[in-house]
Amino acid sequence: MAANSIRKRQTLRGGEQRRYQSSDSKSSSGSEIKASSDGSNKSSGSGKLSTKEANTEASSAGGTRRSLTFAIGGVLTLLGVAGYTFFRQPTVDIHSAATPSTSILSSPTQTALESVSTKRIEAKKKLDGLPSKERREEAKKLGMLTEEEVDAILHAKENSWHLAPSSSNALGLRVDTNQVSSNDPIEDYLAWSPLGIFSEAEADKSPSVPRYMFSVFDGHAGYMCAEQLSLRLAPMLNESLDVVSKLVNQESSTSEIGKELVSTVKQLKRDSGIEWDQIPLALTATFIRMDYELVHGALAEFRKLQKMSTIDKLLGPAVSGSCGIVAVVDTEAKEVVVGNTGDSRALLGVRLKDGRWKAVRLSEDQTGSNQKELERMMREHPGEPSVISRGRVLGALMPTRAFGDCRYKWPLEAQQDLFPVLYSRGHRYATTPSNYNTPPYVTAKPVIVKHQLSENDKFIVIASDGLYDQLSDEEVIDSVAQWYEARNNVNKDAGSGSTLTTQDSNGATHLIRAALSTDRLGRRSDSVIRRLLAIPPPHSRRFRDDISVTIVTLNRD
Fold first, then answer.
1. pLDDT tier at 549, thresholds 50, 70, 90
2. 373-392 burial by CB neighbour count: b if 16+ within 10 A, else e?
3. Who contacts 160 (Cβ-Cβ below 8 Å, separation ≥6)?
4. How far is CA 290 from CA 65, 98, 238, 251, 476, in A?
5. Helix, strand, coil share of the chain (percent; to 5)
């Protein structure tokens, strides 16, 4: 696919991402640090894996290691803040505005990150080997990072760029992204891509495009599934949009993947018995087909080849799993379509006529605490009361929809045949869950939300669940609105009660700073983020999750 000159994806890997329950313990500064009260994940609406699985992951190498294609200094890798890899397409500038770029970190920033690394190494030595309860208490007593060290972490992976309007009536977009890890290194992937361009020749004819895809892939049980999604889902979505368009026009697709997608699209239409809009249909078909390739296509390919040298590459992404949220913004039709599988979330920031802001959800969290999902699971698995146990699928997996996770999808015979081999090679989640009777238990079929953008719709926030552990929907939108209004010189009554300044030019950085500066009582203080970021991985996972954020600002000027 010949996209814009650069398509970005995240390349870091870390431990399993989880959310933890808040305790009532206070830091010495009077601000409360969020932590698990018992060292376990919440039983509902929180981390992806059960406590037993989490402990296994923490002690495991987690399978084949990936290499960092591009990183700025070994110290960044150690900190889990190593830079982005830019996956370069044919060098065609289809945008008049700048695309994301990376630069060597300044000497003061590099020095600050090295200082953080040293402090975390010493802190880890203090915490390793302590009993769980004592370790939590000791983590809260660690010295705080300096403001310069916090800033270095927050700015290490931020990016901003503009996407020019494709016509006089189209929206222009500004994109801000950032990530701060808790796992070492991070497992989340951020990906974006223009849609509708298949060759360099087409790109030459189009100075810009009307449609863009923005996505967050939140991996669990290893990095491999999320990594594959970041590389393969955008091209497949592009192909799906073409297939759907050709079906509408009664044309045939010639590519092999196109023919497979045609079959998926037709099956979706038959099963639903309704007329689909093109983008929702293409998104749904892409999610289903992508998961089929990762879970079942890879299994068939391995059985065909019967080569042990291919088992990790082919089946590793099937054993691991990932939530995935994709927002397609059509700048000419002025609409956004969100497909979501799992518990990442998209919000719309709406500025009301009286100047107040409203948070509008563009996605639903798909977990056992979602009543619709609970009813669906019970309906699909009648007579199995343990299908959702302790708020989790078969008592273990938090999201009820996810890519990969073959332990909830493969037939039992395939698991018995291959899991012992995969487990022996370091894939610690190659185990069969209890009460495994009527697979599949997990689907990647997304829930779709379509929204027509109005003049009052100002920005879209797409983020992994780590953000929403720290802030409510309203707090997220209010924080971004503060940055938006400062950037656009919008006058507003200064009565929000927020003590946070707009010191960050990047909206995602501003939002993450707000999230990590907020204690469990909703109070914001610099001491909170300075303490939280001082706690080294993996112990930091008891206090915060990885946070990955993309903000798309809708420009009408």
1. very high
2. bbeebeeebeebeebbbbbb
3. 100, 174, 175, 176, 177, 505, 506, 507
4. 23, 31, 13, 23, 31
5. 40, 20, 45
Asked if 506 and 176 count as a contact pair (C-beta separation under 8 A), the reply is yes
Neighbouring residues of 96: CB distance < 8 A, sequence distance ≥ 6: 164, 207, 208
**Residue 258 token pair:** 């196109």
Q: 3-class secondary structure for 9-23?
A: ECCCCCCCCCCECCC
Output the pTM of the full model: 0.82
Let me know how many helices (H) and strands (E) the chain has, helices first. 17, 16
Residue 101 confidence (pLDDT)? 47
Q: Flag whether pLDDT at 74 surpasses 90.
A: no
Q: Can you list the positions of beta strands (E) in 247-374?
A: 321-330, 335-341, 345-351, 357-361
Q: At 140, which helix (H) or strand (E)?
A: helix 132-140
Q: How far apart are CA 155 and CA 158, in angstroms?
A: 5
Q: Say which residue the tokens 């400062």 belong to.
A: 486
Count of beta carbons in the 10 Å neighbourhood of residue 557: 6
CA angle 519, 522, 525 (to 5 degrees): 55
The angle subtended at Cα 90 by Cα 289 and Cα 556, nearest 5°, is 80
Among candidate residues 139, 46, 17, the one with its CA nearest the CA of residue 539: 139
* Greatest Cα pair distance in the chain: 68
8-state DSSP, 210: S
Among candidate residues 166, 190, 173, the one with its CA nearest the CA of residue 459? 173
Q: What is the mean pLDDT of residues 259-283?
A: 81
User: Any long-range contacts for 86-90 (C-beta under 8 Å, 24+ apart)?
Assistant: 86/6, 86/7, 86/8, 87/6, 87/7, 87/8, 87/9, 87/231, 88/5, 88/6, 88/7, 89/1, 89/2, 89/3, 89/4, 89/5, 89/6, 89/7, 90/2, 90/200, 90/203
Q: Which residues of 41-70 are buried (b: 16+ CB within 10 A; e: fewer)?
A: bbbebbbbbbbebbebbeeeebbeeeebee
CA 238 to each of CA 1, 95, 99, 208, 213: distance values in angstroms, whole numbers, following the listed order: 8, 18, 20, 16, 9
Q: What are the tokens at 99?
A: 């695309």
Higher pLDDT, 530 or 94: 530
Return the amino acid letter for 299.
L
Please say whether the dihedral angle defined by the alpha carbons of residues 386, 391, 394 and 396, taken in this order, is positive or negative.
Answer: negative
What is the CA 2 to chain-centroid distance, rounded? 24
Listed residue (242, 188, 196) closest to 216, CA to CA: 188
Place of tokens 């599988």: 341
**Binning pLDDT at 50, 70 and 90, where does residue 59 land?**
very low
